[in-house]
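Changelog-linked ticket: glutathione example.
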Amino acid sequence: MQYALYYYDMCPFCQRVLRALPNVNVEVEKRNVLKDQQHRKYQQKETGRTTVPCLLIKDDNGEENWMFESADIINYLKSL
Ligand SMILES: N[C@@H](CCC(=O)N[C@@H](CS)C(=O)NCC(=O)O)C(=O)O
């Protein structure tokens, strides 16, 4: 499994997730959607939304699932 967090620094909901990352048991790649427009475009293409934070969950078969809502993302990552 691979995990990527779509975020930007000034977003308080993103900060909540970012603060939780050191306490989870998986590695999460950070994708700043303001610093890299490709990330923003990809998220929008795949989800129809630009809301952050957003967690991309990619399984071993390459299938991608997207999760919104900071509380849900934190709970999910802590459950792993
Ligand atoms: N309830 C959501 C709120 C997320 C939210 O409001 N994100 C804002 C940035 S702070 C956003 O992405 N707004 C732009 C958009 O929705 O396209 C959460 O807890 O994650």
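Closing comment: Example verified and attached. The chain has three helices and four strands. Strands lie at 2-7, 28-32, 54-58, 64-68.
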